[in-house]
Design a protein that fits this description.
With about 180 residues, the chain is mainly alpha-helical. It has one domain (about 10-160): dinb family like domain (Four Helix Bundle (Hemerythrin (Met), subunit A), Up-down Bundle). Helices cover about 65% and strands about 5% of the residues. It contains eight helices and two strands; from the N terminus they run H-H-H-H-H-H-E-E-H-H. Strands 1-2 form a two-stranded antiparallel ribbon. A hairpin with a 2-residue loop joins strand 1 (about 120-125) and strand 2. The mean pLDDT is about 90.
Length: about 180
């Protein structure tokens, strides 16, 4: 007997929620907890963003595209303020904002179906499908998570242990035998 094909819509939406809530958000939280309140707002130069700006920006993007765009909430985003902020917005407030936004967005994503992913929406003047919205937000979140990780490594001069390089265990074992 032939096995039924997996429901690709459910798999896609589950992966999006996992990416936001269980993969990238914990990394951002770890970074913001490791940085000092001052370092959260550090910028290498005027054209760069701080980890704090990126956290505000991610909360704004997720709210606008998922919660408002797909969930129907009012869109009150003030994007320029996300980048203009110089802090110090306290770490606990940034974490609370980002956690709450991601949790709310994951609730919206959990309620989507194939029709919702096919439906067209207008966000920031772009005509996009629900599928494109979810894809954009998860990719965008990952991109800026990487920037926050880079800033954290730069400021701390430390490996955050999120990944392991190929052969790392073997090299450690070889070094311990010397």
């Amino acid at each position: 007997m032939k096995q039924a094909a997996p429901d690709i819509t459910k798999l896609f939406l589950a992966q999006a929620r996992h990416s936001l809530e269980e993969h990238h958000l914990p990394r951002i939280e770890h970074c913001l907890r490791r940085l000092s309140e001052r370092d959260i707002w550090w910028r290498p130069h005027a054209t760069s963003n701080s980890a704090g700006n990126l956290a505000l920006h991610l909360a704004g993007n997720v709210r606008q595209w998922i919660i408002a765009g797909l969930g129907g909430a009012p869109d009150r985003r003030e994007r320029d303020k996300e980048f203009a902020e110089r802090g110090p917005v306290p770490r606990r407030d940034l974490l609370k904002l980002l956690r709450g936004t991601v949790a709310e967005a994951c609730g919206v994503i959990a309620r989507l179906d194939g029709r919702a992913l096919a439906r067209q929406h207008s966000i920031q003047g772009f005509q996009v499908s629900g599928f494109e919205i979810v894809s954009h937000v998860t990719e965008h979140f990952a991109y800026h998570t990487g920037q926050i990780i880079f800033i954290t490594k730069l400021k701390l001069g430390a490996d955050l242990r999120f990944t392991r390089l190929p052969g790392e265990r073997k090299r450690k074992k070889e070094l311990s035998q010397v």
